[in-house]
Structures are given as C-alpha cells and as structure tokens.
Structure prediction request, 430 residues.
Amino acid sequence: MTQRIDKAFIAEENAKLAGFLKEDYEALGNQLARDDINIEDITAKAEQFQIAVPSWGTGTGGTRFARFPGEGEPRNIWEKLEDSAVINDLSQCTERVSPHFPWDKVDDFTELKQTSDSLNLKWDSINSNTFQDQPGQAHSFKYGSLSNTRAESRDLAIQHNLDCIEWGKALGSKTLTVWVGDGSNHPGQQHFQSAFERYLDSMKQIYAGLPSDWELHIEHKMFEPAFYSTIIQDWGSNILAAMELGPQAKSLVDLGHHAPNVNIEMIVSRLIQFKKLGGFHFNDSKYGDDDLDSGSLHPYQQFLIFNELVDAQYRNQEGFGPNYMLDQSHNVTDPIESLMNSAASVQRSYVAALIVDRKKLSGYQQDNDALMASNTLKKAFTTDVSPILEMARFNRGGAIDPIAVYRASGYRAQAGRERPNSGGNGSGIV
Ligand code: PSV
Ligand code: MN
Ligand code: MN
Prediction:
C-alpha cells in the first residue's frame, strides 16, 4: 500500500506556518469583530463542512480526443481510496467518497467497507452508469437506457440501479444518483412525450426499491452524449420527474450542465423552496460540461450559490440538507492537488457566505437599495477568509497548506513506483 502522509510530517510542516497563521487569524478576527462577527463561530462551522470526492476524479481525466495519463494513477477502487484518504488527511473536509459502478469494480463489498473504515473514509452517493455498454452486455444502451424503446434494455438499466442500491447498503450510503445520457441526435428521432413516459416508468421501478431512509437524486444535463435532445435536459424536466416520483426523489445540480449564462443560484433557490434540492456536483466551466476545477473561473457564481444555501440554513428551511460533491476531470494537473484545491475553494465560498450581513442585506432588499444590497454581498465575497480555512484544517489535524505538504511528502513519486502499470482511471472516459 502506498505510504500515507505521516501525521508527524504534517505537524512538522504546520509548525513552519503556525506563527504566520496566528497573526493572520488575529487580524481577520479583529476585522470581522467590527461587524459583530465572532471568527471562532465561523471557524467552527468551517470545521463541520464536508464535500465528497468522486472516485473517478482521482485518476487523470481526458477528452474524446486524447488522455495523457499521469504518474502513479490509481488502478482500482482500492488505490482510489488511498488517494482519497490523503486528500482528506490534508484537507480535513473530504471524508466521503462517491463511487461509480461499474467503473469501480468490486467483488467483495464487505471488504471494501472495512478498507474505507480503516482509512477513516465514508461513502457518499452511489452513481449508476447506464450511459455505456459493458463488455458482453445482452441488450445495448446505444439508443438509451431507462427510456429505451426496447423493454429488454430498460429492464437491464433498472436492474443495474437496483443493484447499485444493494451495493450502497453494504457501504453505508444513503443516496443513489441517476444520470442518463438518453436522448436523440436528430429531430424526429424520438417522440419526446413517449420517451419521457418510458423514463418515468423505469424510474418509478427504481424508486420502489429505495429504502425509506434513502434519497434518489436525478441529475440533469443539457446535452452530450445526445446532441439534439436529452431526456432530463434541465432543472424543469428534473423537478417534474422528482415531483412525479415522490418526496425521496430530488434534483441534483451539476454546475457544468446548464445553458450558458443560466442563473444557477436562482435554480438553487427554487429547488430549495420546493424541498427538491438533493445535491451538487461542483466544478467550473467556460463552454459546456468542461469539468474544470471548482471556482477556477467563476468564484463569484459559486459564492452566490452558497449565499442561497447559507440563507436556507439560517432560515432552517424545511427539507434542506443537500449533498455536496466534486465532479471534475483533471487533464493537466495532479488529480490529488486539484481535488484538494477545489474542496478548499468550495469551502471558501461557504465561509464567505457565512459572513454576509444578512440583516443588512434584507433591509436593503426591502428598501430596494440595489447598490448597497449588491455591495453587501461583494463585501463578504472580497474578504480573504483564508486564515479561517487554514485554522479549520489546522484545528482538525490537517495541513495549513495542503498542496505544499503534499508536494514535500513525495507521495506522487512513491505512487509512481508502486503503481508501475497505471495509466487507466477506470472511468472508461478517453
Ligand atoms: C455527466 O456528465 C456527469 O456529470 C455525471 O455526473 C456522471 O456520473 C459523471 O459526469 C461522469 O464523469
Ligand atoms: Mn455530474
Ligand atoms: Mn458532467
């Protein structure tokens, strides 16, 4: 097993920065105190924040043109867990891993659960995969899975999702996330209503197999792989499906799955209002489903989403408690570094949203003072909350500077030696 990063080593590296952190934390504490914000309260909340890592994100991603494998990539779910443990040891906010079946090949789920326990990791939402055929598959998903015109293909897709629930039970998960690429590439290829009816009928069968304490998350995406129409193309179709299925069905928002310029934070607000916000796949994008690192392009959008989330949290909105997860593809960076950076970026948006002066904001909204309302949000967004994030990690035994500690540890080079024949991320994406 690839050597974990030693706790003593993390402590040694932290000792080099602890003095500076104390100074910066004090300065920020004084600044926040002017607005009656107690920095310790915010840090305590930051320490509670968790965002799941996708198992497939630990391998190098790629595009349909090429993939450039990185050194020492994990070759299987066990090695993906090792890398996930390193991410969590340093970041202290990623204790859950979200698996993708059958990309993650598992014979013995009890053994897998024991391994994750030993690494202090838990399991987040189970992702099913009916968007590609597996070797030897009896009935193809070429023309769709849950909405296929042929019952044999639909039944296979339904059964796979029911299997995912069983595997998830063994791992202690409580959520199934269903994303399908079903759709059409040519006008006229598909009868929109009949296809949606078939999809709903299949989803009802999956919903019927859901344990009472589970949720079923439906993920929408505008296009790709279908380039003319997609069955669950936006949050409208998504919430319709979730409402049709019942209270355990909710919508999942992947930030890269909307039309350009769509107001995602407003979609989030609507879903919250109707108790249908299931969770998130965080990433960033410039053109489409780019799966770039979270907050690397649109940190303000990410903050505005958290502004809605924190607002709902403070209002104790009924039925509110979404799953947070990263869903990214790392083509040119070390996936461990990108995932640590991204988790911290999302956590930063959360913390910045916590320091929004909500009383003032509400007053400005009431008085239609657009400029001051906007400035209230901007003030929180532009406050550098880094010392809070650093202190939260430090207090929990993580790294003040996760990337620096990771690089100094030599973990990647060691993984390269121990995983000589890596070169596949097991995701099937090339
Ligand atoms: C589809 O683009 C998606 O966002 C879904 O969440 C899949 O499970 C994942 O990407 C696969 O990378
Ligand atoms: Mn996604
Ligand atoms: Mn996607």
Observations:
- The first strand starts at residue 53 and ends at 54.
- The chain has one domain: 50-356.
- Residues 219, 254, 281, 327 surround manganese (II) ion (ligand 2) (CB under 6 Å).
